[in-house]
UniProtKB/TrEMBL annotation:
This is Malate dehydrogenase. It comes from Cannabis sativa (Hemp). InterPro entries: L-lactate/malate_DH, Lactate/malate_DH_C, Lactate/malate_DH_N, Lactate_DH/Glyco_Ohase_4_C, Malate_DH_AS, Malate_DH_type1, NAD(P)-bd_dom_sf. GO terms for molecular function: L-malate dehydrogenase (NAD+) activity. It comes from the Eukaryota. Pfam families: Ldh_1_C, Ldh_1_N. The keyword Transit peptide applies. Homodimer. CDD domains: MDH_glyoxysomal_mitochondrial (cd01337). It is found in: Peroxisome. Residues 45-187 form the Lactate/malate dehydrogenase N-terminal domain. The active site is at H219 (proton acceptor).
Length: 355
């Protein structure tokens, strides 16, 4: 089996050119460095950390297809050379470079505009997201230390679970490094919105693309709070529908974990949601107006320091955190339950760094 050191050397060779790592062309007398490619076209530089994983691979593929991306860095502690070689053959504009192992983390991050983090272990049946804390907290800490050092102005999209704790961990790492900008740290809760749109559309008999359900709070169990009273297009649900939809949206992740029966959690729908969210962040960075998405961010919308709600994205990241709007009694009850659990998860993340 190839050692990490050998694989590192191999990926360095592959990554040392702006051209994709296609086969060596000496056989026909042409070396890669003699090709006429001038390097990356204008666009954003994006890194995916955990790029060889279940989410990372389809996410990397979809980001390679995004016309706003000019450079795509794929980092993982295993298998990134293969994923990089594979994706680099796609005939889209982004130049792809691979990075393997901690020794290449800084190169992976330097100069990035957006860093997407799906690194970490997923759930198995019977586990909660919080059961992932012990492993994923350390992974997120290390990666965020790298971001603070190498690309402190990058927008960070944090996917690794438990999001309700990993976002506070990231914030504490950045505070310690003196680089924390609350506008640039976003926990990705887009999958909850994607699921909510799908399930609500099913109940209403609509096309999910025409449905918009705000989902606020956090990203675990009762902290996932769909605001069904604010669905667009405006509609009414009966009590049975509200119970069914709220439970299904809150337990959508568990539904997938159980169906995968030990083979991990949502990867494909998550990659789709992550790319939808990353694309919104990039359009905001480009200066597009009126880009609103839900995300778990530093917030004053409740008394908690972090909360998921609608945010307006722009050139500096989160430019405005929207208030929750009018809630009905069912949602007000849900909000109290969500806040109780969220407070403990946030505190757990903060203590992990401050201890
Ligand atoms: N926010 C959400 O909505 C959401 C949705 C789905 C999954 N998730 C979470 O995303 C995470 C990844 O899920 P997955 O299914 O892709 O898991 P996976 O095990 O398939 O992939 C994780 C990848 O992370 C890599 N990794 C581990 N340690 C690393 C490190 N220190 N640096 C860089 N990479 C490292 C692994 O090598 C692996 O390739 C899990 O924590 C999961 O719970 C979040
Ligand atoms: O459920 C999980 O563990 C993964 C993810 O958070 C999800 O919502 O699918």
């Amino acid at each position: 089996m190839e050692s990490v050191a050998d694989a590192s050397r191999r990926i360095s060779r592959i990554s040392s050119h702006l051209l994709p790592p296609n086969i060596q062309m000496e056989g026909c007398g042409l070396r890669r460095e003699n090709c006429r490619a001038k390097g990356a076209a204008p666009g954003f530089k994006v890194a995916v950390l955990g790029a060889a994983g279940g989410i990372g691979q389809p996410l990397a593929m979809l980001m390679k297809m995004n016309p706003l991306v000019s450079v795509l860095h794929l980092y993982d502690v295993v298998n990134s050379p293969g994923v990089t070689a594979d994706i680099s053959h796609m005939d889209t504009g982004a130049v792809v470079r691979g990075f393997l192992g901690q020794s290449q983390l800084e190169d992976a991050l330097t100069g990035m505009d957006l860093v997407i983090i799906p690194a970490g272990v997923p759930r198995k049946p019977g586990m909660t997201r919080d059961d992932l804390f012990n492993i994923n907290a350390g992974i997120v800490k290390t990666l965020c230390e790298g971001i603070a050092k190498c690309c402190p102005n990058a927008i960070v999209n944090l996917i690794s679970n438990p999001v309700n704790s990993t976002v506070p961990i990231a914030a504490e790492v950045f505070k310690k490094a003196g680089t924390f900008d609350p506008k640039r740290l976003l926990g990705v809760t887009m999958l909850d919105v994607v699921r909510a749109n799908t399930f609500v559309a099913e109940v209403l008999g609509l096309d999910p693309r025409d449905v918009d359900v705000p989902v606020v709070g956090g990203h675990a169990g009762v902290t996932i709070l769909p605001l069904l009273s604010q669905v667009k297009p405006p509609c009414a649900f009966n009590a049975k529908e509200i119970d069914y939809l709220t439970n299904r949206i809150q337990n959508g992740g568990t539904e997938v974990v159980e169906a995968k029966a030990g083979a991990g959690s949502a990867t494909l729908s998550m990659a789709y949601a992550a790319v939808k969210f990353a694309d919104a962040c990039l359009r905001g960075l480009r200066g597009d107006a009126g880009i609103i998405q839900c995300a778990f961010v530093a917030s004053q919308v409740t008394e908690l320091p972090f909360f998921a709600s609608k945010v307006r994205l722009g050139r500096s990241g989160v430019e405005e955190v929207h208030p929750l709007g009018p809630l009905n009694e069912y949602e007000r009850d849900g909000l109290e339950k969500a806040k109780k659990e969220l407070e403990a998860s946030i505190q757990k993340g903060v203590s992990f760094i401050r201890k």
